[in-house]
Amino acid sequence: MLLSVNALDRAYLTVIxxxxxxxxxxxxLTWKDVDLDKRxxxxxxxxxxxxxxxxxxVPMVSEVERALKYAWEQRDKNSPYVFTNPKTxxxxxxxxxxxxxxxxxxxxxxxxxxxxxxxxxxxxxxxGASLTDxxxxxxxxxxxxxxxxxxxxxxxxxxxxxxxxxxxxxSTTNGKEASKHDS
Length: 183
Prior knowledge:
This protein is mainly α. Helix content is 55%, strand content 9%.
């Protein structure tokens, strides 16, 4: 899937996927909340309707850092947002048609942005991350919610997200092979 979209949309999906963020946290992400030197992102969310927004910091993995550096190079200099809607000059709201259209075009099962969070949480759990750490990364208030979240991950979602992982592995491998040939 990542290989089938333009480079800025690839950066957008990479940041959503590899931070475990809610899509609206990334859509509202501003450059002042990105610290490339410390490799941290501040994500803001509102847990309750009309409640205060709360912040959590999530460390960047290398792929997220690369994606954000690319987004910085391509940024709309008149917008504070990391990912700016070129039609409005403001942040995106949800982009529900983007992911659905991409899946349909590729002929793969429809996924949604929340599936990216599930995949991130599941991968962290499979690789031995503690429930408490996963809870903090996802911005969950209770560990029981995170545990339930991990238990509810269905096989169809795993298969769908496996397609994404396969694309990412292929793009990384192809990029390394291309670099070897360029040397």
